[in-house]
């Protein structure tokens, strides 16, 4: 079927269609954007359609708005769909994009065919977008930054469903934090509820990463509880949270441990009797220099996961220094030892294929992985480097493994030491650069 008839408005042909193109990589973003519309009643003014497959161009009708949110590795797939849609030049449609990649760069995104771009936190901009559509106002090519809420209430026909109470302790003059607590990733148009983002931003500046550094925000407990109630009402039994550094939740700077804030969060979560309460594993990983006995004893009281995920990233101190990770290989090993002593095994995330990475460097990382896996209860999850838009490494080529190096990793994989994520990652990286070189040679030429 073309439309998703399981959700409201799917058969209403009198309203403008808003098509949410869902991908495995954007399952976290669309529910919260829809939640913003639902809180203000904007969704009832449109025909909301969710699509897990590309919409055939012949089935697109004049007035359609097609929305994408994506990360850098899936840009080729998104571009192929846009190119097919753009062949129907007679169609009066809007193709809109947001998410991590577009927040990091807009030039290539515009060249790829997007009509409207969204950067940064999306909730408020998405509300403004709805108001502009309803009032038939010109749609700006870029929605950027935070705007006053009086720009959202442009339509006399659409008002907030109910007044949104200001969260206790959150000043009205801090709209970014207000927005963060105002909306949750729960929508009547999407059956699943993704993990809840409880920390937005990061205190570190790793060269491979594009997570914004400024204005680190933490979700308050009132907002968390609204999500917990929604999950229980849908009969869900597994809860996890999103945080780039879960043991820094509530802290005012890096390595500022606020275990009282973490315990408040976990105590609240336990009141709802979920079968699985996960914290300290993807997508709420732990930096190695934030692993402490006190922190892990706290987790042991409340979480169901038997391991923690530690962001190691390299087995070589010189590379860790270049990455600006702020920790050493000794910190990694100390974290593993502490985790094991507190009753947790460890899963370590590593990245291979960094720019200018040598065979010797990769061997050092493989040797480090082999040694610690023999000594401790630990497994390594290897990812392949891809330059993310907005990161310091955004115009750097990856390094590629030679045949004997791949064979070494296959042996580690068969021994149960390495998890094989790097294999699909490498194929994705190669496909990305093949696509970029073939379609946007000028942009490709910037890479070194």
Structure, briefly:
The chain has 448 residues and is an alpha/beta fold. The protein has a domain at 1-194: Cobalamin-binding domain (Rossmann fold).
Question: What tags apply to this protein structure?
Answer:
six-stranded parallel sheet; four-stranded parallel sheet; 448 residues; alpha/beta; Rossmann fold; disordered N terminus
What's the topology here?
Blueprint: E1 17-21, H1 30-40, E2 47-51, E3 65-69, H2 75-86, E4 94-98, H3 100-104, H4 107-111, E5 116-118, H5 123-134, E6 142-143, H6 175-182, E7 196-197, E8 199-200, E9 217-218, H7 221-233, E10 238-239, E11 241-242, H8 259-270, E12 276-277, H9 293-302, E13 307-313, H10 317-322, H11 329-341, E14 345-352, H12 359-375, E15 378-384, H13 403-414, E16 418-419, H14 421-439, H15 441-444
Parallel strand pairs: 1-2, 1-3, 3-4, 4-5, 5-6, 7-11, 10-12, 13-14, 14-15, 15-16
Antiparallel strand pairs: 8-9
């Amino acid at each position: 079927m073309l439309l998703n008839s399981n959700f409201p408005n799917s058969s209403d042909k009198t309203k403008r269609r808003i098509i949410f193109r869902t991908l495995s990589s954007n399952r976290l973003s669309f529910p919260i954007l829809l939640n913003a519309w639902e809180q203000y009643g904007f969704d009832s003014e449109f025909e909301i359609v969710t699509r897990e497959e590309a919409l055939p161009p012949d089935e697109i009708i004049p007035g359609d708005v097609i929305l994408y949110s994506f990360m850098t590795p899936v840009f080729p797939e998104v571009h192929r769909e846009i190119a097919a849609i753009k062949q129907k030049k007679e169609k009066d449609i809007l193709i809109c994009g947001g998410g991590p990649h577009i927040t990091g760069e807009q030039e290539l995104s515009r060249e790829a065919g997007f009509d409207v771009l969204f950067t940064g936190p999306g909730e408020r901009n998405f509300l403004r977008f709805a108001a502009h559509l309803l009032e038939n106002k010109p749609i700006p090519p870029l929605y950027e930054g935070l705007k006053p809420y009086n720009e959202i209430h442009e339509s006399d026909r659409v008002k907030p469903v109910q007044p949104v109470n200001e969260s206790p302790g959150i000043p009205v003059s801090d709209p970014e934090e207000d927005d963060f607590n105002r909306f949750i990733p729960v929508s009547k148009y999407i059956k699943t509820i993704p993990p809840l983002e409880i920390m937005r931003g990061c205190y570190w500046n790793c060269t491979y990463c594009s997570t914004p550094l400024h204005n680190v925000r933490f979700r308050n407990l009132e907002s968390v509880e609204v999500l917990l109630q929604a999950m229980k009402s849908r009969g869900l039994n597994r809860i996890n949270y999103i945080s780039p550094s879960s043991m820094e939740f509530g802290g005012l700077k890096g390595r500022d441990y606020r275990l009282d804030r973490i315990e408040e969060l976990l105590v609240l979560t336990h009141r709802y009797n979920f079968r699985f309460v996960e914290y300290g594993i993807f997508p709420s990983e732990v930096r190695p220099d934030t692993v402490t006995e006190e922190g892990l004893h706290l987790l042991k009281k409340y979480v169901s996961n038997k391991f923690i995920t530690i962001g190691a990233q390299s087995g070589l101190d010189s590379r860790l220094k270049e990455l600006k990770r702020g920790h050493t290989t000794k910190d990694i090993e100390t974290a593993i030892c502490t985790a094991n002593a507190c009753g947790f095994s460890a899963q370590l995330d590593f990245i291979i294929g960094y720019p200018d990475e040598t065979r010797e460097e990769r061997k050092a990382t493989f040797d480090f992985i082999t040694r610690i896996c023999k000594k401790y209860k630990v497994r390594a999850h290897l990812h392949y480097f891809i330059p993310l838009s907005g990161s310091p490494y955004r115009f750097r080529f990856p390094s590629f493994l030679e045949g004997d190096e791949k064979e070494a990793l296959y042996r580690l994989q068969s021994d149960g030491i390495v998890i094989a994520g790097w294999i699909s990652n490498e194929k994705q990286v190669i496909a990305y650069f093949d696509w970029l070189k073939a379609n946007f040679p000028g942009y490709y030429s910037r890479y070194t």
